[in-house]
Structure formats: structure tokens, C-alpha cells
Specification:
Largest sheet: 2 strands, antiparallel
Structural class: mainly alpha
Strand content: under 5%
Shape: globular
Helix content: 55-70%
Mean pLDDT: 74
Low-confidence stretches: 1-87, 92-130, 132-150
Length: 420
């Protein structure tokens, strides 16, 4: 007994902590068992506490964290096994210290909270402490990537410029070689645009455009406008509407009005408007008429785009097209008026004041066409009508300002520069 007492005192002096006496030890006349679970009892000492026969083994505490922490604070190694396994307390302590001392994007406070959360989780035996501490340390050591700054232009500008130059080159080559090739370009663009528009309606709104009548009738509107003018285009349009009514009959009453309305709208919005662009080609000065129309629309779009990107602050129609601003509209007016005055006077021998009126009208119709398609896309819940043209979207996304402007161009140019 004296030997046991001496060893007990030596251990107390080594740890610097006074263990509490185990209840029942005094009454049984046996030495108090150390409160540190898992500590090997001295040779010859009883292996139990509070047991009359000494047969029941000492049961380690369920948590073990409090005692291990006290040992660690006292400078003794935490060798006591607990519910988490030997050495978990050391790992928690090391991980928490690393997380707290390592600065990172989340801040020192976040690292402390991660470490504390890890200790709390291990106290319940979940084993999440190591993962939380490791996450805290990794998050502190690795800087967060900077968010990619969005382009103020709102699109892939190099791709948009490249595609625009290619389209412009194709149009100019067709006009300067065999100008009637431009009608073929219009016909192809209208056909692709019809496919895009019908596809979006089918996927998003479950609306079926009468594709065969609209495609065939649309091509008839464009090509008949070449020899017969507006009479040929309007006649083909009426026949297209009749064909759509008949084509949809076998589908039954459900959705009939919805599908017919979409079909008639597609036939009017795309090929009928496009036929007016085709009617600019046949006159002897057709090249000048087409260039005046195209340059006016391009100048309007470009002027509005530049002014809007550089100084656009006041939205024109925030619920329809949030990026369109009054500053951009002012830039469109400047570009359209200058282009109209120059092209109409130089290419068609018109007056400057006629060019100014033409430019203002083109800006209004181009802006209206852009807003109309924006409203259609917003109603359908899509960003672009297609993906054929990088930086632009689909063909429909480039025809929005051209289609209504073609009608106004034909009307005004026919009035200002009568056919000889």
C-alpha cells in the first residue's frame, strides 16, 4: 500500500493535477483508482474501483474529451483511448490550431468556427471534426478564384464582328456580281428563321406551326415579289393562310386557334416582310436601294450599340429590353440620320432632307423590330431564337430590325426616288 501511494504521488506531481477520489474507495479500503481511463494500474494494485471483488474492469468515459483536454493542457500525452480512438484529441487540437492561425479568404473568425465545429462534432462521436478542420485549413490556404468579370458588351464581341463581316461580304459580293443572288440570300435566311421560330414555339409553348405551308408559301412570297412586286407577295400570303387553315384541320379542335394564329403570324412576320426587301432588287438602281436600306439599319444598330455600351444609363423599356437605353437610342438616331443622308443622296441622287427623314424612319422601325422580338423572347422565356451565328444567336436574332425596316424602306424609297 505504501508503494502504491508513493507511485500515486509521483504521478500527481508529474501531471500537476490532483485526481478526484473514486467514490467507494475509502469505504472498501482500497486505493483510489486514477480518474484517467485507460491508465495502467500499478502492479499489485486492484484493477477496479468501487467493486468488492475487483473483477469488473474499469470502463472508459464515453466522451473522453474533457479528460484528454486536461491531460493535454497539463503537458502529458493524450494516450487515453476514447470513443473516437487513440490520438483523435491531438489531431483535433492540431487541426484547430492550424485553421485558426492560417489567414484565408474566409477570415480568421471562420477558421475558428470551423475548428470549434469540428471539436463539437467529435464530442458527439460523429467523426466530422477531422473533415471540418481539414476543410477549414484548405479553405484558408487556397485563395478563392476571382469571379470572371462579365463583358459590358453583353456578347462575344470578336465573334459577333467576325460573323457580321462575313455576312456583309456575302451580301456585297452578291449585289456587285449578280444582284438577284441577293433574293436567294433573303430566301435562305427566311427559311432558316422560320425553322428557328417554329422550333422555339414547339419546345417552349407546345405550339405547332404549319411548317410545310409556311415554308412553301414563304418562298413563293419572296420569289413572286421579283417579277410581280407586291401583288405577287400578297397573293402568295393569302394562299399561305388558306393552306395553314386546311393543313391543321386533321389535328382536331384542341389548340387549333393557337396553332393557326402562330402559323399566320410566322408567315406575315418572316416571308411577307422579307418580300419587301426582295422588291428593292429588280429596279435598275436596285443595288443602291438595297445598300441604302442595309446601311441605314446597320448604322442604326451600331450607333445605338456603341452609345449604349459607353454611356447608357436610362432604360428605354426596362420590362421588355433592360439593356436598351435612351442614350443608345440617341446614338441610333445619329448613325441612322448620317447614313440616310449620305446614302440616299450619293447612291440614289436624292435630297439630303429625304435622307434625314429616311434615317429617322429606319431608326424607329429598327428599334421597334428589336423591341418586338425582345418581347416575344421574354414571353417565351428564351434568350436567343437560335445558336447558328456565334456572338449573335440565331438568324431570327439578326432579322429582328431588318424585317420591319424593309417594309418602310420600300415605301419611302418608292416615294422619294420613283422608278424610272
Amino acid at each position: 500500500m505504501a508503494q502504491v501511494s508513493e507511485e500515486r504521488e509521483d504521478r500527481v506531481e508529474a501531471t500537476g493535477d490532483q485526481p478526484a477520489a473514486t467514490p467507494g474507495a475509502a469505504e472498501a479500503g482500497t486505493p483510489a483508482t486514477p480518474e484517467f481511463p485507460g491508465t495502467t494500474a500499478p502492479e499489485g494494485a486492484p484493477a477496479t474501483s468501487g467493486s468488492a471483488n475487483g473483477a469488473t474492469p474499469v470502463v472508459p468515459e464515453a466522451s473522453g474529451n474533457g479528460e484528454a483536454g486536461r491531460l493535454s493542457a497539463a503537458g502529458a500525452p493524450a494516450e487515453t483511448p476514447d470513443a473516437l480512438g487513440t490520438g483523435d484529441a491531438d489531431r483535433l487540437s492540431a487541426a484547430g490550431t492550424a485553421a485558426a492561425e492560417t489567414p484565408g479568404p474566409t477570415g480568421t473568425g471562420d477558421a475558428d468556427r470551423l475548428s470549434a465545429a469540428g471539436a463539437a462534432a467529435d464530442a458527439s462521436g460523429t467523426g466530422e471534426a477531422d473533415r471540418l478542420s481539414a476543410a477549414g485549413s484548405a479553405g484558408a490556404a487556397v485563395p478563392a478564384p476571382e469571379a470572371k468579370k462579365a463583358s459590358k458588351a453583353g456578347r462575344n464581341l470578336p465573334a459577333a464582328i467576325g460573323v457580321g463581316l462575313l455576312l456583309g461580304a456575302a451580301i456585297i459580293v452578291s449585289l456587285l456580281t449578280v444582284r438577284f443572288l441577293f433574293i436567294g440570300i433573303i430566301a435562305i435566311a427566311i427559311a432558316v428563321g422560320t425553322f428557328e421560330f417554329a422550333g422555339v414555339l414547339r419546345r417552349v409553348a407546345d405550339t405547332r406551326v404549319a411548317m410545310i405551308p409556311v415554308l412553301v408559301g414563304g418562298q413563293a412570297m419572296i420569289w413572286l415579289a421579283w417579277p410581280f412586286g407586291r401583288e405577287g407577295a400578297l397573293t402568295a400570303f393569302v394562299l399561305t393562310v388558306l393552306a395553314c387553315l386546311l393543313w391543321r384541320l386533321p389535328g382536331g379542335a384542341k389548340g387549333y386557334l393557337r396553332d393557326i394564329s402562330a402559323s399566320v403570324f410566322a408567315a406575315a412576320y418572316l416571308p411577307l416582310f422579307g418580300a419587301f426587301a426582295a422588291m428593292l432588287v429588280p429596279p435598275s438602281d436596285g443595288v443602291g436601294r438595297v445598300l441604302t436600306f442595309l446601311i441605314g439599319v446597320v448604322a442604326s444598330d451600331t450607333g445605338g450599340y456603341i452609345a449604349g455600351v459607353l454611356g447608357g444609363k436610362h432604360p428605354m423599356a426596362p420590362t421588355i429590353s433592360p439593356k436598351k437605353t435612351w442614350e443608345g437610342f440617341g446614338g441610333s438616331l445619329v448613325g441612322g440620320v448620317v447614313a440616310g443622308a449620305l446614302t440616299l443622296s450619293l447612291l440614289l441622287d436624292g435630297h439630303v432632307w429625304q435622307g434625314v427623314i429616311f434615317g429617322v424612319a429606319i431608326v424607329l422601325t429598327a428599334t421597334l423590330g428589336d423591341l418586338v422580338e425582345s418581347l416575344i423572347k421574354r414571353d417565351l422565356g428564351v434568350k436567343d431564337m437560335g445558336t447558328l451565328l456565334p456572338g449573335h444567336g440565331g438568324i431570327m436574332d439578326r432579322l429582328d430590325s431588318l424585317l420591319p425596316s424593309a417594309v418602310v424602306s420600300w415605301l419611302l424609297l418608292s416615294a422619294f426616288v420613283p422608278l424610272g
